[in-house]
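Posting for a labmate who doesn't have an account.
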Amino acid sequence: MIKHIVMWNLRGDTQLEKAQAVAVLKRSFESLRGRIPGLRYLEIGVDSSRIDYACDVVLYSEFESQAALDAYAQHPEHLRVKKELADLRIARHQVDYWADPVNAPEEQT
């Protein structure tokens, strides 16, 4: 299984603007449930710490394989969400990793 984690900072000069951006992002990603083959789990988390170096939102998702994650990247529903959110983000960070390193493919050096 592949875990796919993405974190964003969102546009917004006020708490209300940020909250509206978070709501749009959350609604958009949650609309993907049941529509993407190989997507096992999807969760959106909203930062509650409010510390200056924290990201605003995190997407935690699990895919059955690297092939499923690769297909997700080009899936029309995922591309729709990316387009909906393009103007909301000001920073994006991503980590993908094997949940079961014993069964992960050999690392390329």
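Reply:
Got it, the structure tokens are right above this. The helical segments are 15-30, 66-74, 76-85.
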